[in-house]
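Box S2. Input/output pair 1.
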Amino acid sequence: MPYYIYWCTYLIIINFIAVIVTIIDKQNAKKQRWRVPEDALLFLSVIGGSVGMLLTMYAIHHKTHHKKFMYGIPVIITLQLVVAMYLLIR
């Protein structure tokens, strides 16, 4: 089986996890409960959940006033695309 099938499966799973964690954090914020640490959200983005997290942030209006997220996650996506392109043309 080609290696890219594994990467695609991984990205689907990690993005699904990022979406769920972002939604849970939003719900907990509304109810003033325990929150997911910002570093954990950014870590999920770095390890591949950046697209799912960014789309979810816009969809549910979560963390959209935090510069760390509104600039950081697009930068993470850009870096991930650069690394992916480098690996593909290598």
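Box S3. Input/output pair 2.
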Amino acid sequence: MTADLLTVAQVMDRLQVSKHTVYHLIRTRRLRSVRIGRCRRIPATALAAYLHELSGEVTGHGR
């Protein structure tokens, strides 16, 4: 089950972006996340959906 929820640091590593950028994506609702106590976790499916959205933007088939 833990592989299904990623930490902010894991998302930073996978996207090669800063912590600020990950939290900005969460705040602007481009990247879905959940809170567990005081911890923020990103479902792996949410990261996959965000990457799919990005690939649509790159190819011009996005919104």
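Caption for Box S3: The beta strands are 5-7, 34-36, 39-43. The first strand starts at residue 5 and ends at 7.
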